[in-house]
Amino acid sequence: MSIKLFELLLQAAIYTVTISVVSILIGFAIAIIVSAMLLSRQRLFALQARIFISFFRGVPLLVQLLLIYNLLPAIGINVPSIVAAIIGLSLCTAAYQAENLRGGFSSVPAGLVESAEMVGMTPVQIFRRIKAPIALRLTFPALVNEAILILKASSLVSVVGVIELTRMAQDLAGSTFLPLEIFASAGLIYLVINWIVALAGGLIERSLPGVPR
User: Fold this and answer.
1) Are the CB atoms for 105 and 39 separated by under 8 Å?
2) What is the pTM of this model?
3) Which of 35, 74, 79, 109 is deepest in the core (most CB within 10 A)?
4) Cα–Cα dist 84/148, whole Å
5) Per its UniProt record, what SUPFAM superfamilies does this chain match (predicted)?
6) Phi/psi at 67 (nearest 5 deg)?
7) Nearest to 34 by CA among 59, 18, 57, 17
């Protein structure tokens, strides 16, 4: 396989990483809200959060992407394919991240929270200094795993017309009749990207307060 073909795969890989990173960050912001609703004492909020999570965990991502891609124009919202793809990936990963965060926040010892309340800490201080650090430390490995899953799942966004790594590999394999070399190269690029994510996740996790180094 020529260097030119490999460069085209690398350019598509950058597109894949960009879509995945933006989706993961948006999804994390949504997940914080959804997890807070899950833990809310207001039953209506908790019910809405459970419906959100059940839908996006229960429906295949491929169907979600096609649904969002066709639904937005139907209600008068015309957006580029990449925006529809990011919306789909963000909502899907938000559902999984929200469950991870809920588990983390639920694992915060109640005694720590009660002690903080007794010394006069405000709810915001308790969240920032006690709940958030402990929950993040407990859920970080799961969040890194979710990031890797989204990177691989981003190959599905080609169904809405986004030319990412897998779609580029398919196009090049069809035009050059070198499917083995092309897909082996694409697989190697995915492997390297995910290895870097796992390595970076491990380094960040060890830098978190309270984690043995």
Assistant:
1) yes
2) 0.87
3) 35
4) 20
5) MetI-like
6) -65, -50
7) 57
pLDDT above 80: residue 208: no
Domain ranges across the chain: 3-109+139-207
Give exposure, 97-131, as e/b (b: 16+ Cβ within 10 Å).
Answer: bbbbbbebbeebeeeebeebeeeebeeeebbeebb
Reference 131, options 154, 161, 159, 101; nearest CA is 101
Return the SS3 of 103: helix
55-69, 93-107, 114-128, 161-175 — which is least confidently predicted?
A: 114-128
pLDDT at position 193 is 96
Predicted local distance difference test score (pLDDT) of residue 114: 87
Q: Which residue has the tokens 């407990």?
A: 138
At residue 162, what is the residue type? Answer: V
